[in-house]
Amino acid sequence: MGSGSSGPSTEQPRGAFRRRFDRLFREVVKFGAVGGVGLLVNLITFNLVRHGTGLPVVRASVIATVVAIVFNYVGFRYFTYRDRDKGGRTKELTLFLLFSAVGLVIENGVLYLATYGFGWDSPLQSNVFKFIGIGVATLFRFWSYRTWVFRTLPAREAVASAESFLEAGQAGTAGPAGQGDGPGPESRPRPAQRVG
User: Fold this and answer.
1) Residue 134: enclosing H or E segment and its boundaries?
2) Closest Cα partner for 141 from 34, 23, 5?
3) What distances in angstroms separate CA 40 from CA 127, 130, 184, one per listed residue?
4) Highest-confidence range of 117-126, 173-182, 183-192, by mean pLDDT?
5) For the segment 120-156, what is each residue's pLDDT rounded down to a tens digit?
6) Residue 27: which of 150, 140, 194, 182 has the closest Cα?
7) pLDDT tens digits, one per residue of 108-118
8) Dihedral angle at the C-alpha atoms of 20, 30, 161, 70, nearest 10 degrees?
9) Contacts 24+ apart (CB under 8 A), 140-144
């Protein structure tokens, strides 16, 4: 008897934890998908600029990082975080560029240290340290983007948005001349009950 009453109280926190974990897992997968393609954009651009123009390693890397930042913003806004608050795009873009600039410094700081601090400047070494720099910067970017840039909607706004979506769906199923609430159970006529 006592165990039956404690079941729902332990189930609810587990269910809430599971939903939050699933949401975070989906976010990490989407972030990783955009970041993975952004990584390829970054490395390909880096190697094309470095070997095609003869620019110094870190300058070529900065150009590649900027190209990847533009690609990543589009991917994060319209894929990873498309369900997040879309108000205040100017503020969102400003914060994205600010945190991306910090990530750029982290990423290229690792490459700068390896190239000019230790003299590791072969194409393989440059790519390895570019990759390591991207990895370290990605941890910072994930935290900053999800915390400050692509913020979740406040609960009140999320509920209002869901309710307006549902109301729009019901309006589409309204009866003739837009009267009634549609075919919902409350608006249907009840059959006459037989007596006897």
Assistant:
1) helix 123-144
2) 34
3) 12, 12, 51
4) 117-126
5) 999 999 999 999 999 999 999 989 988 888 876 555 5
6) 150
7) 999 999 999 99
8) 140
9) 140/99, 140/102, 140/103, 140/106, 141/99, 141/100, 141/103, 142/28, 142/31, 144/99, 144/102, 144/103
Q: What local confidence, expressed as pLDDT, does residue 43 receive?
A: 96
The pLDDT confidence band at residue 84, using thresholds 50, 70 and 90, is confident
Q: Encoding tokens for residue 168?
A: 């729009």
pTM, two decimals, is 0.65
Residue 72 buriedness (CB in 10 A; 0-12 / 13-18 / 19+): buried
Location of structure tokens 């409350």: 186
- Residue 34 one-letter amino acid: V
Sequence length of the chain is 196
